[in-house]
Design a protein that fits this description.
Number of domains: 1
Distance between the termini: 39 Å
Structural class: mainly alpha
Largest sheet: none
Radius of gyration: 13 Å
Strand content: under 5%
Shape: globular
Length: 88
């Protein structure tokens, strides 16, 4: 249960920071921001694992300063991909 709460907090932080940094206007409320941040944590964690180990495995960032940084980068990637999908 604590892990779920930590993921929600990480998602909210990462999503909010990524939306503030990323240029342009992104829609969505608090649930979209949290979901975007959680997806970003998985994207960032997976990319860091791939770079560090050379193996692809689904991993999430931890609730720490480096984890938030990785999750924000992943959330920015998610915002970009979501923008590409919605433009069609």
């Amino acid at each position: 249960m604590i892990n779920i709460i930590a993921w929600i907090i990480l998602g909210l932080l990462a999503g909010a920071i990524a939306k503030a940094i990323y240029p342009g206007r992104q829609g969505g409320g608090i649930f979209a921001t949290t979901f975007l941040g959680i997806i970003g944590a998985f994207i960032g964690g997976t990319l860091v694992t791939l770079i560090q180990t050379g193996q692809f495995s689904l991993a999430g960032a931890a609730l720490s300063i480096p984890g938030i940084f990785v999750a924000v980068l992943g959330a920015m990637i998610a915002i970009y991909v979501w923008g590409l999908i919605n433009r069609t």
